Amino acid sequence: MLRLLEQIREGSLEAFDRFYAIAAPMVMGLSGKLLQDRMEAEDVCHDVLMTVILKPELYDASRGSVEAWLCVLTKNRCIDRLRKRKRLVLDANSGVLAERQLHRQNDTERHVMLNLQKEALHRAISELPQVHRQTIAEAYFDCRSQRELASAWQIPIGTVKSRMRYSLSRLRKAMERLGWAEAGGGRSQ
User: Fold this and answer.
1) In 115-130, which positions are buried (b, 16+ CB within 10 angstroms) versus exposed (e)?
2) Which of 3, 69, 143, 159 would you call most buried, defined as having the most Cβ atoms within 10 angstroms of its Cβ?
């Protein structure tokens, strides 16, 4: 898809046709799941693919795959429509049934966003040096304290603390670069 997007940037309509054939089912499927309304999903699909053809330069390879970019564009358009719909539902006082439907849609949205965020986190962790990946993995995924790590690895606890601080700082910067955290997040300003 990246090659096709580059050709679209150069003005190739044939590349857009091929891109559309690949991307439209994915965008339509995601928007259909999020919106639960085929006509609105088609509108979102149209909006997203118009963005691709009119503004292909918005894609930034350093922030993720073309597919992830399309999912984020789709998700954002769907959220806008859900918010508008929610305002209309609340204004009309349609009751509990409408709220339940919106809650189900929000669960789907959360699920999609968690998967995208997980993909970004895996990418950020993979960029860390091996010793720092190991430190993060054992501290967070194996639920081991810094003291336990220092004892098991037979190194000073200060070294473990430094590795953790370095690792978390690098992860935060990587997530910022990938668009999943605000710059300077987690620090007092």
Assistant:
1) ebeebbeebbbeebee
2) 69
Q: How many domains does the chain have?
A: 2
Where residue 174 sits, what CATH number does that domain have?
A: 1.10.10.10
| Sequence-distant (≥ 6) Cβ neighbours of residue 50 within 8 angstroms | none
Q: What is the pLDDT of residue 189?
A: 39
Alpha-carbon span 136 to 23, nearest angstrom: 35
Examine the domain organization and report whether 117 and 161 are in the same domain: no
> Residue 91 pLDDT > 80, yes or no?
no
The residue segments making up the domain with residue 156 are 129-189
Q: Which residue, 141, 129, 122, 118, is CA-closest to 167?
A: 129
Going by C-alpha positions, the residue among 44, 36, 42, 41 that lies closest to residue 102 is 36
Look up residue 56 and give its two tokens: 């292909």
Which among 126, 151, 181 is the end of a domain? 126
Residue 129 near residue 166, CB atoms below 8 Å: no
Co-location of 88 and 133 in the same domain: no
Among 152, 181, 146, 150, residue whose Cα is nearest residue 165: 146
- Nearest-angstrom CA–CA distance, 40 and 113: 20
- Determine the residue type at 42: E
Tell me the per-residue pLDDT of 9-45, one tens digit each, with 9 for 90 and over: 888 888 888 888 888 888 988 888 888 888 888 889 9
